[in-house]
Specification:
about 150 residues, two-stranded antiparallel sheet, 4 helices
Length: about 150
């Protein structure tokens, strides 16, 4: 099975308060967010399975990102991924969080199982500009970026 890391470019179309599991209710500003994740397990947690799960409208809500993605006015715009069997999620999250204009609006969001400040930085930039910057972050961390075709 294919293993890898990925970045979901997500648009929140409206300021809204959302309940995010044990993080509680948080204000999500309108704009773009990038969720950085990995899929390094067996077939049930392969890269393809994980990405299809994120895109599914109906699923068991388990991770922080599940709560966010089920919200009204929230949609995945683009998915960038790289094939790797190495745990590179935190390194990639660090690189993406260093992009100019990246903000940590919600500490520990998407990073409850590591020491990263967040795996979901916020960006107040245009989508096409952000996509290019995300691809550069993959390359800087020696990962070959690909665009997921839904």
């Amino acid at each position: 099975m294919t293993k890898g890391v990925y970045a979901l470019i997500i648009k929140n179309h409206k300021d809204q308060n959302l309940q995010i599991g044990k993080l509680g209710t948080r204000l999500f500003s309108q704009g773009l967010y990038v969720y950085i994740g990995s899929a390094l397990g067996s077939s049930a947690t392969s890269l393809e399975y994980r990405l299809r799960r994120h895109l599914a409208k109906t699923k068991k809500v388990f991770w922080h990102i599940d709560f966010y993605l089920q919200a009204e006015f929230v949609e995945i715009l683009t998915i960038v991924y790289a094939i790797t069997s190495e745990r590179r999620e935190c390194q990639l999250a660090g690189a993406i969080s260093q992009i100019e204009n990246a903000q940590i609006l919600i500490a520990r969001f998407g990073s409850s199982d590591c020491t990263c400040m967040t795996h979901v930085p916020y960006f107040a930039v245009k989508e096409e500009n952000l996509l290019a910057l995300i691809k550069i972050s993959f390359i800087k961390t020696e990962l070959e970026p690909h665009i997921w075709q839904t």
